[in-house]
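FORM 12-B: Structure-to-Sequence Request
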């Protein structure tokens, strides 16, 4: 039956697929898939699937590359605040802390995780539109001086922070998150920089808030921030946003300590992204040039730059390892049913995101098949009409590029267990 769907394809098909611009822990040798130099089938032998598999070596590579690129481009005392929501595994955080990373958090839960990993509160920025009184109080009181910055997303939030700081007899360090009104070219669910989005403040509202003295008795403005979206592959919107934040910074009468340029740099999930991706080096150079042009060349006061990268730091270091449960044929459709589902990795179902699915054993002979999970939802599908070998029950596959927004978005939907995370 499966023959119906069979066709032959160049033996180098998988090696071509694997030719990522960005370094990855995966590699085929003699048709066997290796992860960080170890055979995947050996790694998976005694583990229950599905599970997440991470490479510390790859994690270190991306953090180092990113932070060094900022220094190489002569940005003034850059601070990398890794965005925890991409992956908040404690060993990931411990490794990043060791390399000097700060943290971008969006909840008190993430803040506690960052502190537990030993990250200095003075390297932590707190973003998000819904910070509660309880969260603000905790962030204000952690460490000797509280966190480095509350990235404020509304006037109401500023007012509340000021009130709480007054009660606690503290001074809260705040930055305004500017909504720069740019449209980042990315999926609509992960674009954040337009005025129809809930994020950030419009320039006019920031200027007005600066004049309201009652909001500033126990707060001090230390920075401005932007974050225009995620999985950005082109830099036009980023440059425009830097122009906007620079104009605002130059127009207000405050000696800012920092400009926070957010996160958002994308990785190569698809073949198309492989060809048009912005590399870390190009990104940093573009950022440095834009800052020079729109800001630093116009003033003697050059605040430091904060970055909030998430995906680019952890996206490539992880895969989701799964086994085939069975295959199924329905008229002209062939299904490969695996034991990982949308509850383990929701990106395909939520953002129509593409993830490469790779067999542990490559073969010359391929079929076209839909890779689906066990969840009772039609959107529980990792890929349609993918070219894969005809697999059978127990065979291993990996879902590539699952280090970011994988485990952190996992749920127990359908009463499934949360997949365990391992390092090689
Ligand atoms: C999600 C988020 C980030 C990280 O985005 P990536 O695309 O993973 O780099 C940074 N800053 C803020 C405010 C965010 O919400």
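FORM 12-B RESPONSE
SEQUENCE OUT:
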């Amino acid at each position: 039956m499966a023959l119906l769907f069979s066709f032959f394809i160049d033996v180098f098909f998988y090696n071509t697929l694997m030719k990522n611009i960005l370094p990855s822990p995966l590699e085929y040798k003699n048709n066997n898939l290796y992860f960080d130099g170890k055979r995947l089938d050996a790694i998976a032998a005694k583990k229950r699937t599905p599970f997440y598999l991470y490479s510390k070596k790859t994690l270190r590579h991306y953090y180092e590359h990113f932070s060094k690129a900022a220094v190489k481009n002569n940005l003034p005392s850059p601070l990398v605040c890794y965005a925890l929501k991409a992956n908040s595994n404690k060993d990931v955080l411990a490794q990043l802390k060791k390399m000097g990373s700060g943290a971008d958090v969006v909840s008190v839960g993430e803040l506690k995780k960052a502190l537990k990993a030993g990250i200095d509160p003075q390297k932590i920025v707190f973003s998000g539109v819904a910070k509660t009184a309880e969260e603000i109080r905790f962030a204000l009181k952690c460490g000797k001086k509280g966190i480095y910055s509350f990235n404020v997303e509304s006037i109401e939030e500023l007012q509340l922070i000021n009130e709480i700081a007054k009660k606690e007899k503290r001074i809260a360090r705040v930055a305004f998150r500017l909504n720069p009104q740019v449209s980042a070219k990315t999926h609509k669910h992960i674009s954040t920089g337009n005025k129809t989005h809930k994020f950030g403040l419009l320039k006019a509202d920031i200027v007005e808030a600066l004049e309201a003295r009652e909001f500033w008795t126990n707060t001090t403005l230390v920075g401005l921030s932007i974050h225009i979206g995620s999985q950005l592959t082109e830099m036009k919107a980023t440059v425009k946003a830097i122009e906007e934040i620079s104009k605002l910074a130059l127009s207000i009468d405050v000696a800012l300590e920092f400009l926070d340029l957010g996160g958002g740099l994308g990785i190569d999930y698809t073949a198309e992204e492989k060809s048009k991706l912005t590399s870390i080096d190009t990104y940093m150079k573009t950022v440095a040039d834009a800052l020079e042009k729109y800001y630093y060349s116009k003033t003697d006061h050059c605040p430091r730059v904060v970055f909030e990268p998430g995906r680019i730091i952890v996206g490539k270091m992880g895969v989701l390892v799964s086994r085939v449960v069975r295959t199924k044929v329905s008229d002209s459709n062939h299904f490969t049913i695996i034991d990982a589902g949308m509850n383990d990795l929701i990106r395909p179902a939520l953002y129509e995101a593409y993830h490469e699915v790779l067999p542990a054993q490559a073969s010359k002979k391929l079929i076209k098949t839909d890779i689906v999970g066990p969840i009772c939802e039609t959107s529980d599908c990792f890929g349609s009409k993918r070219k894969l070998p005809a697999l059978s029950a127990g065979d291993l596959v990996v879902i590539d590029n699952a280090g970011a927004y994988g485990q952190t978005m996992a749920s127990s939907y359908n009463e499934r267990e949360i997949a365990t995370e391992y390092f090689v």
